Amino acid sequence: MFFWSENLKVSLFTIHIPLKKVFGAIKKREIKRFIRSLDRELQKWFNQKFTFLISGLNPHAGEEGFLGQEEIEEIIPALKSLEAEGERQSENRIHIEGPFPPDVVFLKAMGKKNTVVVSWYHDQGLIPFKLLNIHSGVNLTLGLPYIRTSPVHGTAYDIAGKNIANPSSMTAAIKLAEELA
User: Fold this and answer.
1) Interhelix angle for 28-46 vs 76-88, to 10°?
2) CA angle 124, 106, 71 (to 5 degrees)
3) Strand, helix or coil at 56?
4) For 41-77, how does the pLDDT look when each residue is reduced to its tens digit (9 = 90+)?
5) Omega within 30 of 0 (cis) for the link into 145
6) CA atoms lying within 13 Å on the CB side of residue 24
7) How far is CA 67 from the centre of its chain?
């Protein structure tokens, strides 16, 4: 899941899994696979390179192990490995920064056109994204051989048929699909 707006772009490492399973999913090999795939897909659809700002999983990005070991044991080693690969293959270099504390990474990305925040779980990425872009954000599904966009708010079944829906996010989804086509 990749969330796009003019002022903020966010990708989710895990999607719809219970929070207690997120920590077990954070593995060096999977992080590297995910970031490579994200880089490749965004280049394919947007025809440009992006900078990835990596969110910490734990508060304060683990505070050097005081608030969690995932950054030290899995996230940072994966990022360093990707950077080393990029130094050996400069044409495939992936631009990565972080991990940054989750409460500041979104501010660092705001307004930067070619910057994507990588969030580790659903609500870590979607709460700030939806707060800022509920009427202008788009969900772009990556990894498909075709373009698939949808409104950031999903189906909105709770208000269907009540004639109160704001169509702005749907309009943005259609416009992004048109641009990508």
Assistant:
1) 50
2) 60
3) coil
4) 999 999 999 999 999 999 999 898 899 999 999 999 9
5) no
6) 5
7) 23
Q: Where are the domains of the chain?
A: 2-180
Report the pLDDT averaged over residues 7-12.
Answer: 97
Look at residue 31 and give its three-state secondary structure: helix
Instruction: Write the DSSP symbol of residue 157.
Output: G
- Strand 115-119 relative to strand 51-55, pairing: parallel
Q: Give 145's Cβ-side CA count (13 Å radius).
A: 0
- From residue 166, give the alpha-carbon distance in Å to each of 132, 136, 160, 162, 173: 15, 10, 11, 11, 13
Is residue 174 within 8 A of residue 136, CB to CB? The reply is no
In DSSP terms, 9 is beta-bridged to 4
pLDDT in tens, 112-160: 999 999 999 999 999 999 999 999 999 999 999 999 999 998 777 888 8
- Rg of the chain taking only CA atoms, in angstroms: 17
What the block records as the tokens of 68 is 């969690």
Q: How far apart are CA 86 and CA 151, in angstroms?
A: 35
Other CB atoms within 10 A of residue 178 CB: 10
Per CATH, the homologous superfamily of domain 2-180 is: Isopropylmalate Dehydrogenase (3.40.718.10)
Q: Which helix (DSSP H) or strand (DSSP E) does residue 117 occupy?
A: strand 115-119
DSSP annotation of 17 reads S
